[in-house]
């Protein structure tokens, strides 16, 4: 049994390494084959399988590149794809990320168109995004006057919004003369949209349209100069060329694209029937709101009317209130005077009950008694203090060093006044002072004795 290696890759790590290896080793490449299983989910991406007699390849055309693919992608079509080889890691599917598609029968022409499309996109020719007036006051339709597209547009406009003024500019919509004719018509319309001209860019719109057809029939709308003329148009432009799957340079250069001529007319104007319904509903809501408002205001008026009183009644109430305040003031004044009178009588009675002469006699008696007590207490206090002083003097005498000196002892001091406690603290020949019980002696050390 073989040993397990130290490093074991997870499935995610393995798929990621495989993807990086494939994307690193393969550059852009072209592959030719037949389309199968074409799927267009709501995300805008396109998924399909490219196959030949012996193999098949899963492919993904993401939305940001799918919008530049003019040719329809249908099952069974034979195409040439340009892209990068990669790996879809979550499922481990080997796939090709497509960025260009060409019909196998017209490869050079479509490749040139694809290069032109990238060039115009890089130059900002596809950056128009002005909002068209809704609804426009005047609609200029540039198309073939005998084609099915103009009939569809006029029918939808008449049914939805007959108020719009339609100006038809007849031009050829296929063949060599189509693109130059449309460019000249655009130049004329833009001259008329200058100040003082016939058309107002803020209120009018231009629709360039035609019905469906083959790639060759719609090729005029892939003209570079026509795309640039649409980009520089003062009038806002809507392009509706062919069916929903048909996409030319004019669609990318226009401000707005519609999938079909009928859809363009529906996008340009509102539906009068829908507006009538909405207006009817708004009228009903307005009537209901008005009725409710009238009811609320009527109720408010009744409430205010109930609160409203005659001015005479209001004045009578004020007079009554004033009389009540006057009565309360008079009662308060009488009560205040009665209280002050009673207090004055009480103070007068207290004053009458006081005899100043008697109070003075009593104060003199108290002063004489206090003086007698003071004179009697002074000798006793002096005797107590004298006795206490004598006792303190005896205690002090008992602990005084002078008493010890009186018994024949002496205190020896050096020149600095320091007490000499040991014989070793003095030197022979040193002068000392001996303090006695009475007086002092100057002495000289002759020698030191051990005892």
From TrEMBL:
Catalytic activity as recorded in UniProt: Exonucleolytic cleavage in either 5'- to 3'- or 3'- to 5'-direction to yield nucleoside 5'-phosphates
An annotated GO BP: DNA catabolic process
Domain (OB-fold nucleic acid binding) ranges: 9-101
EC number: 3.1.11.6
Pfam families given in the database record: Exonuc_VII_L, tRNA_anti_2
Broad enzyme group: hydrolase
Keywords: Coiled coil, Cytoplasm, Exonuclease, Hydrolase, Nuclease
Main location as per UniProt: cytoplasm
GO molecular function annotations of the record: exodeoxyribonuclease VII activity; nucleic acid binding
InterPro entries attached to this UniProt entry: Exonuc_VII_L, Exonuc_VII_lsu_C, OB-fold_nuc-bd_dom
Subcellular location: Cytoplasm
CDD domains with a match to the protein in the record: ExoVII_LU_OBF (cd04489)
Residue stretches in coiled coil: 315-342
Domain Exonuclease VII large subunit C-terminal: 128-443
GO cellular component terms given for this protein: cytoplasm; exodeoxyribonuclease VII complex
Oligomeric form and interacting partners: Heterooligomer composed of large and small subunits.
Role this protein plays: Bidirectionally degrades single-stranded DNA into large acid-insoluble oligonucleotides, which are then degraded further into small acid-soluble oligonucleotides.
Family designation: Belongs to the XseA family.
Annotated protein name in UniProt: Exodeoxyribonuclease 7 large subunit
Species in which this protein is naturally found: Franzmannia pantelleriensis
Gene name linked to the record: xseA
């Amino acid at each position: 049994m073989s040993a397990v290696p130290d490093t074991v890759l997870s499935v995610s790590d393995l798929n990621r390494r495989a993807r990086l290896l494939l994307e690193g080793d393969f550059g852009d490449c072209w592959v030719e084959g037949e389309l199968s299983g074409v799927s267009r989910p709501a995300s805008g991406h396109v998924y399909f399988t490219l196959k030949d007699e012996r193999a098949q390849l899963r492919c993904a055309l993401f939305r940001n590149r799918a919008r530049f693919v003019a040719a329809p992608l249908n099952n069974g079509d034979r195409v040439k794809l340009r892209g990068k080889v990669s790996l879809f890691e979550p499922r481990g599917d080997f796939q090709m990320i497509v960025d260009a598609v060409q019909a196998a029968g017209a490869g050079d022409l479509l490749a040139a168109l694809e290069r032109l499309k990238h060039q115009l996109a890089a130059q900002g020719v596809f950056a128009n995004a002005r909002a068209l007036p809704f609804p426009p006051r005047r609609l200029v339709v540039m198309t073939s006057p005998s084609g099915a597209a103009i009939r569809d547009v006029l029918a939808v406009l008449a049914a939805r919004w007959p108020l719009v003024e339609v100006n038809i500019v007849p031009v050829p919509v296929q063949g060599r003369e189509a693109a130059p004719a449309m460019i000249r018509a655009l130049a004329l319309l833009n001259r008329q949209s200058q100040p003082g001209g016939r058309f107002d860019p803020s209120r009018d719109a231009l629709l360039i349209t035609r019905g469906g057809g083959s790639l060759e029939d719609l090729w005029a709308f892939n003209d570079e100069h026509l795309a640039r003329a649409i980009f520089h148009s003062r009038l806002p432009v809507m392009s509706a060329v062919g069916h929903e799957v048909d996409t030319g340079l004019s669609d990318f250069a226009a401000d707005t694209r519609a999938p079909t001529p009928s859809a363009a007319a529906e996008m340009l104007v509102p539906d009068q029937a829908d507006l009538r319904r909405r207006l009817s509903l708004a009228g009903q809501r307005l009537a209901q709101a008005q009725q409710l408002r009238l009811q609320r205001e009527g109720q408010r008026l009744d409430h205010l009317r109930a609160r409203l009183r005659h001015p005479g009644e209001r004045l009578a109430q004020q007079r009554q209130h004033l009389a009540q305040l006057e009565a309360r003031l008079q009662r308060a004044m009488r009560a205040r005077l009665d209280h002050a009178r009673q207090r004055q009588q009480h103070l007068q009675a207290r004053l009458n009950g006081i005899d100043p002469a008697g109070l003075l006699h009593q104060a003199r008696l108290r002063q004489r008694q206090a003086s007698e007590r003071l004179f009697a207490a002074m000798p006793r206090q002096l005797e107590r203090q004298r006795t206490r002083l004598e006792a303190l003097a005896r205690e002090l005498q008992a602990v005084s060093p002078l008493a010890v000196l009186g018994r024949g002892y002496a205190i020896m001091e050096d020149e600095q006044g320091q007490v000499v406690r040991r014989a070793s603290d003095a030197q022979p020949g040193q002068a000392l002072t001996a303090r006695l019980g009475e007086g002092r002696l100057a002495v000289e050390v002759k020698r030191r004795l051990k005892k």
